[in-house]
Amino acid sequence: MTDTGELTYRRVHAASPELLFDCMTDPEHLAHFWGPAGMTTPVENIVVDLRPGGVFETTMVNDADGSTHTMRAVYGEIRRPSLLEWVEADVQGGMRTRVTFTDLGDGRTEVVTHQTNVPEAYRSAQARAGFATSLDRFEHYLSTLDSKRR
Amino acid sequence: MVVVEDELSLVFSALADPTRRAILARLALGEATVNQLAEPFDMTQQAVSKHLKVLEQARLISRTRAAQSRPCVLETVRLDAAAEWIERHRRVWADRHDRLAEHLAALRPRDDEEKAE
């Protein structure tokens, strides 16, 4: 990890914000890519109740041994096609995922996923920046450790 | 490295405080006593001790038994776990978007209609 270490993931896709928003919220679409690597998420294993407070659940199946992993989340803010938010109450004290879709005006859309998992860390932008900084430091610190271990 | 998720909660909530992050940054340079840690922060020893307790519970630091001064030492295992967790999540999203790109490419012929359903 050479960049910030903040839980932000940015990706540009050649599609409209509307289509990308639908891809992220329609089980038929989600089944094609939800993954992760080595796992598939059959459409019947996906529950989407697209409204604030609605359920977002996916049960991923391990391709190798058939074992399953369920993600349970509840939708927060929803603004098609620009914003999608869900919270996983079970994970690390309430991991919050915010996905924003920004039209780049040339047929492409920037998708930014920002994840925060600690309530104190996402209450203010300041705290968020501080949290990122701390992770920067750790990465730096860890890299010094790695060289020591050798 | 298998990590109980709860331990990560402790780690991340310990990290949510700027003073505690500063303490960890100081300890990254080498062990320090409570006195030494209190100095740059303009805090009472008691206030620092409180923060140290949180860091100790998250197992981000430990204190040596032997010496009277009980200097604090950074514990790297939990930091590794936190960094590893972040990297794991990054990989999940990277893979997800790779597949999404493939899916979009497959959809492209009907992309003009804008009706994905």
Automatic annotation (TrEMBL), chain A:
<protein>
    <recommendedName>
        <fullName>Activator of Hsp90 ATPase homologue 1/2-like C-terminal domain-containing protein</fullName>
    </recommendedName>
</protein>
<dbReference type="Pfam" id="PF08327">
    <property type="entry name" value="AHSA1"/>
</dbReference>
<dbReference type="InterPro" id="IPR023393">
    <property type="entry name" value="START-like_dom_sf"/>
</dbReference>
<feature type="domain" description="Activator of Hsp90 ATPase homologue 1/2-like C-terminal">
    <location>
        <begin position="15"/>
        <end position="142"/>
    </location>
</feature>
<comment type="similarity">
    <text>Belongs to the AHA1 family.</text>
</comment>
<dbReference type="InterPro" id="IPR013538">
    <property type="entry name" value="ASHA1/2-like_C"/>
</dbReference>
From TrEMBL, chain B:
<dbReference type="InterPro" id="IPR036388">
    <property type="entry name" value="WH-like_DNA-bd_sf"/>
</dbReference>
<protein>
    <submittedName>
        <fullName>Winged helix-turn-helix transcriptional regulator</fullName>
    </submittedName>
</protein>
<feature type="domain" description="HTH arsR-type">
    <location>
        <begin position="1"/>
        <end position="94"/>
    </location>
</feature>
<dbReference type="InterPro" id="IPR011991">
    <property type="entry name" value="ArsR-like_HTH"/>
</dbReference>
<dbReference type="InterPro" id="IPR036390">
    <property type="entry name" value="WH_DNA-bd_sf"/>
</dbReference>
<dbReference type="Pfam" id="PF12840">
    <property type="entry name" value="HTH_20"/>
</dbReference>
<dbReference type="GO" id="GO:0003700">
    <property type="term" value="F:DNA-binding transcription factor activity"/>
</dbReference>
<dbReference type="InterPro" id="IPR001845">
    <property type="entry name" value="HTH_ArsR_DNA-bd_dom"/>
</dbReference>
